[in-house]
Amino acid sequence: MGSFPTLLYKETLRFWKVSFQTVAAPVLMALLYLVVFAHALGGRVAIYDQVSYAQFLVPGLVMMSVLQNSFANSSSSLIQSKITGNVVFMLLPPISYLEFFAAYVLASVIRGLVVGAGVLAVTVWFVELHMVAPLWVFGFALLGAALLGALGLVAGIWADKFDQIAAFQNFVILPLTFLSGVFYSIRTLPAIWQAVSHLNPFFYMIDGFRYGFFGMSDFPPLASLAVVAASFVLLSAGCLLLLRSGYKLRQ
Amino acid sequence: MTFAIEALNVEKRYGALQALAGVSLAVAEGEFFGLLGPNGAGKTTLISIIAGLSRASAGQVRVMGSDVIADYRRARRMLGVVPQELVFDPFFTVRETLRIQSGYFGLRSNDAWIDEVIHHLDLGAKADANMRTLSGGMKRRVLVAQALVHRPPVIVLDEPTAGVDVELRQGLWRFIRRLNRDGHTIVLTTHYLEEAEELCDRIAMLKAGRIVALDSTRNLLDTFSGLVLKLRLDRDSLPDGLEAEILSRDTGRFTLRLRDYAALEEVLHRLRGAGAAIRELELEPPDLEEVFLRVMAKH
User: Fold this and answer.
1) DSSP assigned state of A171
2) Where are the domains of chain B?
3) pLDDT tens digit sequence for A70-97
4) Cβ of B124: how many Cβ atoms within 10 Å?
5) Among B60, B79, B165, B195, which residue's Cβ finds the most Cβ atoms within 10 Å?
6) Which bin fits B22, alpha (ψ -120 to 50), beta or left (φ > 0)?
7) Architecture of domain B5-222 in CATH?
8) Is there a contact between A120 and A43 (Cβ–Cβ < 8 Å)?
């Protein structure tokens, strides 16, 4: 097993020590979205029969929190280590690039799932919700979190400054999540924007995750799962190649 | 024979800049080895390559016989590195930092040794304090402790005493000497040449990415350094034909540079021959700083 358990422990302990920022804050943020959007749009937007807008919104918010926090965990942890220089403590020991990848991604998954569970736990007080297919819920959350954890790791490897991570978050992650159907169903969009939405990998994660709650989705869930899994495999391969080459970590 | 560290024709280029231009050296097991050179000579680059933090453009490096690329797992287990920069992870306490570092080497029940390292480096009072709250000197000690958690046979210290107060410096050296007596190989870079002179068995001097001197400290001192003789005489002139460079003269006071102790005999002999009486005499033995300056000037 070597270094992997310790690196995973360190990465998990790192966000847990500041859980007020890394867990409580995103849960509050999601709750605010729910209150504001459900109040503003509730009753005006109907997506599926027998599903209120607030009910529709909650899974989207949960998954959005999972994805954003998974990305934030690996990217911010690595960029901090690079900038403060303490990344050297992970480069000196015999940690293989596979162990490095697995620990960072898994810690991101843990943070994503903890935040997601937190959002769900808080919102069910306000909105009545049932999971018709919990395995789909869990499967999409897991794969989505892993995908964003790997993406965060790539961003952390590539970036030299905090600004670049922030730019990545604001100009890539945020638009892709907001335009993925968290707050609306893409079926309500004009045909052209529906087609564009299908190019957004976040759409498949949100849509598939939502399927687990309502048994209904805009896209077949198995196909969504395949898209997400393929994206994860591709991105992981790229990330592992970067790590193996020592890109920006070992000059 | 297995060397603690063996570098063969190591080159490192950063674009057009040649940081190392073919460095070869071998450090024997149990040695206390000094790596000296002006800023930018390539010391830290060489250490980075030995530690696997950076990859050589050409050449090979082995630690305790293991190639740092091909057999990096063993090579890194054999090596403890104290980095030059005062880096730390602000999320953890001293003890957490050491436990985590230990775990990176696959050692998960290492508390007895961690306690010992904490004790020897006088970190006991701060063991459960967050790294952020530590003074610079304390952080430096934690860096040393981190390099030792996996009991590496070879320890590399990259300017460990830069910006460290005298007390800590001495404590640190006592500890490092002890490790060396216990059989650890020590490789040290420092800008304090008196430290290197006092501690190192052998010294390599680097300049512009090349080794310009590599010998035992004793030989370096004997070969390159002269003596400085300060005299006060009963007269204002020196006898003719002294084979010494006169560094300064001032009404009866003279500072001479001598090649070696034989030259001292010669000077005393001529002074006696000229009937000069010596009022004061001071002899400064060779020091590494002098050697260093001469070697650097020559290359």
Assistant:
1) I
2) 5-222, 225-298
3) 999 999 999 999 999 999 999 999 999 9
4) 12
5) B79
6) left
7) 3-Layer(aba) Sandwich (3.40)
8) no
The C-alpha of A235 sits at a distance from chain B's nearest C-alpha, in angstroms, of 25
What is the torsional sign of CA B153, B88, A79, A67? positive
Sort strands B278-284 and B227-233 into parallel, antiparallel or unpaired: antiparallel
Residue B30's identity, in one-letter code, is G
Minimal C-alpha gap between A111 and chain B (Å):
16
Distance CA A119, CA A113 (A): 10
The residue assigned the tokens 């690329």 is B69
One-letter amino acid at A245 equals: S
Fold exhibited by the domain B225-298? Alpha-Beta Plaits (3.30.70)
- ipTM of this predicted complex? 0.92
Same fold, B5-222 and B225-298: no
- Give residue for tokens 């867990």: A23
Q: Report the amino acid identity of residue B270.
A: R
Paired tokens of B229: 């003789």
| Pick from A1, A88, A250: CB nearest B55 | A250
What six digits make up the tokens of B164? Answer: 């460290």
Chain A from 12 to 51: CB within 8 A of any B CB: 13-14, 17-18
Alpha-carbon gap: B174 to the closest alpha carbon of chain A (Å): 25
Q: What is the DSSP letter of B132?
A: G
Residue A240 in this model has a pLDDT that exceeds 90? yes
Contact check, Cβ <8 Å, B81/A92? yes
So where are chain A's domains? Answer: 4-245
Confidence band for B298, pLDDT divided at 50, 70 and 90: confident
Q: What is the DSSP letter of B93?
A: B
| Amino acid sitting at position A20 | F
Contact of A129 with A62, CB cutoff 8 Å: no
- Report the half-sphere exposure of B299 (CA within 13 A, side-chain side): 17
Determine the 3-state secondary structure of B192 from DSSP: coil
Phi and psi based region of residue B209 (left: phi greater than 0; alpha: psi -120 to 50; beta: remaining): left
pLDDT band for position B55 (cuts 50, 70, 90): very high
Give the nearest partner residue to B77 out of A86, A88, A94, using CB atoms: A94
Please indicate whether, in this complex, the C-beta atoms of B104 and A14 are within 8 angstroms of each other.
no
CA distance B14 to B7: 19
CA distance B284 to B227: 6
Confidence band for B203, pLDDT divided at 50, 70 and 90 = very high
